[in-house]
Amino acid sequence: MKNQFIGTSSIAYGVPVMIMGTGSVVGKNEGAGPLGDCFDEVGLEVDDMFGADSWEKAESMLQTKAVEKTLEKVELKAKDVRYLFAGDLLGQSIASSFGIMDFEIPWFGLFGACSTSGEALILASMAIAGGFADTTMALTSSHFASAQKEFRFPLEYGGQRPLYASWTVTGSAGFVLQSSEFEGASKRARNCFDVNIGITGVTPGKIVDYGIKDSFNMGCAMAPAAAWTIATNLKDFGRRVEDYDAIITGDLGSIGQEALYTLLEQEQIDIRDRHYDCGVLMYDSEKQDVHAGGSGCGCAACVLSAYLLKRLESGEWKRILFVPTGALLNKTSFNEGQNVPGIAHGVVIERI
Amino acid sequence: MKNQFIGTSSIAYGVPVMIMGTGSVVGKNEGAGPLGDCFDEVGLEVDDMFGADSWEKAESMLQTKAVEKTLEKVELKAKDVRYLFAGDLLGQSIASSFGIMDFEIPWFGLFGACSTSGEALILASMAIAGGFADTTMALTSSHFASAQKEFRFPLEYGGQRPLYASWTVTGSAGFVLQSSEFEGASKRARNCFDVNIGITGVTPGKIVDYGIKDSFNMGCAMAPAAAWTIATNLKDFGRRVEDYDAIITGDLGSIGQEALYTLLEQEQIDIRDRHYDCGVLMYDSEKQDVHAGGSGCGCAACVLSAYLLKRLESGEWKRILFVPTGALLNKTSFNEGQNVPGIAHGVVIERI
Fold first, then answer.
1. What is the pLDDT at residue A341?
2. What SS3 class is residue B57?
């Protein structure tokens, strides 16, 4: 069957692209949260340095470990992966470039802010579905301390953050993709799941700007983009909300998700009974002082890797819509008074 | 015919992806160079502000203008473009996100440093060749002043640059792609060329680190990556140097290209008689004070748009290998003593 582009922005793959395996590495704080037992590796040090001597190098180390862990689980070597699609939040993607360099896998550097895990899964699955590769990997990371330094102030400054701010997740996760009709000279990966889990379609997002100027209020900056991508996905595929067992946004947090419900209501779409937000799932909001919840490129990636895919594997869910969300800004754009627009990329993942 | 992945990192498209049209906008300094008459628009102000009130917004304006110019030439509206693949040099891709937002085209944000135009052309052509879209656009930009501020010092500081440093090109160029076997509900673009020019294959690059620590010496930092991509392309496609009428690197400049020749010699490859470098082509090194030549995401893109494609159109060249080159660093990685690795993406463009 041929790939088809449908509606405004969606693609239905002719043949599902299988997620053969995934690996995740997170920091101590993430390990102390409700999903703590689900990750493949949890840092033990309170400063999450992972043996590096700077925050940026620590984030690169997270990516290195996530690639190693993922390859180990699918029983492949780096040379078996044809293309790597990876990005992070740091300027000029340095967490990725220095983190993946030694694997020598041809690399597509991506930036979609905290939606990058969605962008990476879309492009890595397109590469498989288009017949451009037999094996690809999607990878993203974020680190609380490197993100604070990049976007706000170094931790040493001791700046106070408002309660509606989110907490950048320290973590990285990788995903190895192959076609369900795998052929090729290279090695078939070991399927880490008891069932076949695959990407059957995608809805790349567009930039949506609602005029939010407060860079701490990421949830509200990204909610309009998430609403657009969810509504567009449903329309393009001719599906109802009930056709998904779960619709999962990236890191809207507790405040952003309320904004999302309100915006979708205007289009007669109600996802409340099956909506989850990775930023909310990541921490225990009662016991952990993370304000509005988790955020960052690593947030949605680690929750998908360690938790969401397992609910598909267990059979609890059959089909989900995964919608990582990103806020588009940098320190300069914020200081120059620019808005904080959002973008969200949709990925349909199901048991196949 | 089906798409095929061949050798280490290359893809041969089953059906060529046509470059239907392209538009470029550059600054005053670029307009004063030897290619000045070739660009679609040249800024007239000495400060290249393009009506904006900051360097970053000026770069966004370059992207806006490049999209408008490109769409105008191919006689399409923004809504006819299904996906936009765009990136720039600024932290968190803000030149792109703010420059393209109003077109409301679903966006894949990319970062490959100055090789981003190659990365964008590869992914935009893959989207066409894979049957994921009928029309895509690739777009990149750079701006001398925003890049100096991002990577070194604001211009107002008056910092001195060594003679082996390159000069970031102020410019942006867009490329509209459609399949040579176009079908679909949307509009066929007007072919801006008198002949059919298309992308027939690609060689995505990997990161190559030769231990360069001097961030001014971009040419030498990127030359090893360019050498890898050129050698890999020749091997993967089973071609000799003579099978290309020209092999064009992005922005190695006068010093980096000597390093490239030396590295390729070690593999018994001599490209001297058909090698061009966009950074060298952009300026008149005798009359313009640009040191080692042009660089930046906009450099290779604008030279391809305004000059290289025209030499294919005129029949002077039949097939070229376009290899934009990028140096992977940011201000923090440099200050923390990290190396400056390189990456280069290869695109095979020919009359079809």
1. 96
2. helix
Q: Does A271 touch chain B (CB under 8 A)?
A: no
Beta strands in chain A (DSSP E): 4-6, 10-26, 41-42, 83-87, 107-110, 135-142, 167-168, 171-179, 197-203, 246-249, 275-277, 294-295, 319-323, 325-327, 342-344, 346-351
CB atoms within 10 A of CB B54: 18
> Which residues touch A346 (CB under 8 Å, ≥6 apart)?
A10, A118, A202, A203, A204, A205, A229, A230, A232, A233, A321, A322, A323
Burial category of A178 from C-beta neighbours within 10 Å (exposed 0-12, middle 13-18, buried 19 and up): buried
At A279, the amino acid letter reads: G
Q: How many CA atoms lie within 13 A of B2 on its CB side?
A: 11
Write out the H or E segment, with its range, that includes residue B124.
Answer: helix B116-129
Q: Do B252 and B223 contact (CB within 8 A), yes or no?
A: yes
CA distance A79 to B201: 21
Quick one: pLDDT at residue A120? 98
Residue with the larger pLDDT of the pair A154 and B94: B94
Distance between CA atoms of residues A244 and A241, nearest Å:
6
pLDDT above 90 for B184: no
Task: Read off the pLDDT band of A184 (50, 70, 90).
Answer: low
pLDDT for A319 beyond 70: yes
What is the percentage of chain B residues whose pLDDT exceeds 70? Answer: 99
| ipTM of this complex prediction, to 2 decimal places | 0.97
Residue A52 backbone dihedrals phi, psi, to 5 degrees: -90, 170
When the pLDDT of each residue in chain A is averaged and rounded to a whole number, the result is 95
**Which tokens in the block code for residue A229?**
């991508």
Flag whether residue A83 sits within 8 Å of chain B, measured between CB atoms: yes
Residue A99 has pLDDT above 70, yes or no: yes
CB contact under 8 A, B336 and A54: yes
pTM, whole model, 2 decimals? Answer: 0.98
Exposed/middle/buried for residue A156 (C-beta within 10 Å: 0-12, 13-18, 19+): exposed
Asked if A202 contacts A122 with a C-beta cutoff of 8 angstroms, the reply is yes
Q: Which pLDDT band holds residue B162 (cuts at 50, 70, 90)?
A: confident
| Contact B112/A at CB under 8 A | yes
Name the token pair of B244: 């290309």
Among A229, A339, A337, smallest CA distance to B98 is for A339
A284-293, A294-303, B79-88: least confidently modelled range = A284-293
Partner residue opposite B328 with nearest CB, options A92, A328, A338: A92
Instruction: Report the DSSP pairing between strands B10-26 and B41-42.
Output: parallel
> How far apart, in whole angstroms, are the C-alpha atoms of residue B25 and residue B48?
11
- Is residue A323 within 8 Å of residue A248, measured between CB atoms? yes
Best interface-test mutation with B: which of A101, A132, A233 has the largest number of B CBs within 10 A? A132
Distance in Å, alpha carbon of B11 to nearest chain A alpha carbon:
6
In this complex, the residue of B5, B82, B112 whose CB is nearest that of residue A132 is B5
* Burial degree of B242 (CB within 10 A; 0-12, 13-18, 19+): exposed
Contact yes or no for A94 and B328 at CB 8 A: yes
Q: What is the DSSP string of A29-64?
A: HHHTSTTGGGSSEE--STT--TT-SSHHHHHHHHHH
Number of H helices, E strands in chain A: 11, 16
Q: Tell me the longest C-alpha to C-alpha distance in chain A.
A: 57
B184's enclosing H/E stretch is none
What is the Cα–Cα distance from B253 to A227, expressed in whole angstroms?
46
Q: Give the position of tokens 């299904």.
A: B82
Query: B25-34 pLDDT, tens per residue?
Result: 999 999 999 9
